[in-house]
Design brief:
265 residues; mainly beta; Porin; 13-stranded antiparallel beta sheet; two-stranded antiparallel sheet; 5 helices
């Protein structure tokens, strides 16, 4: 099988015991900075490689400094192995500086079983073919890599004015048609437009301070349906919640991130 660009652009190479090397590449930037979800997926690849190829169950990351294009080193410290749920911490370094610090629990998602009662329901929306590809700014690398089709919230990009909805709903998939796996979800949860755009005028940069992702399963083939919401924006800080549903209507990922909202004014 030919690897898609996500697989090649998040690949890690062993350079020592639980030490991994990666290269942050073009195609995943917002402005000049690699997207935080893309960076987290690279960290996830390194942790998975250190934990027998298992899948992320829950991962929490703090973004101490922005990353840049080029080489990065990920140092993984396994905390508990050999059980159904394994734990590790990871540190992503660039040019001698600590950029991302993560703590994670990994498992085999295919072997999860137990009680189920899901109160949350997916958005009721028309099929993906109903919507056009979202390209609000050709300068963003991510729109050349990710096929984003806004279902709800697109009026903001037409008027540039807040709508007070605190919500975007969109379909997402790869432009190259690659299948979407578990670690891919660590990236997709951070690909939605920040809902803070709809809450106040003149929002510029919305940097992530912390991001937590929880997986509930591996996605079925087909596009993802994503809903991102923000309920509060107070003194320049907001939360962004994201839920991801697969092509069969199953909930496969939940995420929450703490973000700072910077004004263009």
């Amino acid at each position: 099988m030919v690897m898609g660009c996500f697989a090649t652009d998040t690949a890690v190479t062993s350079v020592g015991e639980h030490r991994w090397q990666a290269e942050l590449k073009r195609g995943w930037r917002v402005g000049k900075v690699p997207n935080g979800g893309y960076v987290l997926a690279i960290v996830g690849q390194a942790i998975s490689a250190s934990l027998d190829g298992t899948d992320p169950l829950s991962i929490n990351a703090f973004y101490l400094e922005p990353t840049g294009l080029g080489e990065a080193t990920i140092e993984v410290e396994p905390l508990r192995t050999g059980k159904a749920t394994q734990y590790a911490t990871a540190r992503l370094m660039q040019e001698g500086g600590l950029k991302v610090l993560a703590t994670a629990a990994f498992c085999d998602l295919d072997r999860l079983n137990g009680p189920t009662n899901r109160v949350l329901t997916p958005p009721e929306v028309p099929p993906i073919e109903t919507f056009e590809v979202h390209r609000p700014n050709a300068a963003l690398d991510i729109h050349n890599t990710i096929d984003i089709r806004l279902v709800s919230g697109g009026e903001f990009f037409m008027s540039g004015e807040p709508t007070d909805t605190g919500e975007f709903i969109a379909y997402m998939q790869y432009h190259d048609g690659s299948p979407i796996g578990a670690i891919d979800l660590l990236m997709f949860v951070d690909m939605m437009p920040p809902p803070a755009f709809t809450l106040v005028p003149n929002v510029g940069w919305v940097p992530t301070v912390e991001l937590t992702v929880q997986l509930r399963g591996k996605p079925a083939p087909g596009p993802l349906l994503c809903r991102a919401t923000s309920h509060t924006l107070m003194r320049g800080v907001t939360e962004a919640d994201c839920e991801i549903w697969d092509g069969e209507g199953e909930l496969v990922a939940l995420a929450r991130q703490t973000m700072k909202v910077r004004s263009m004014a």
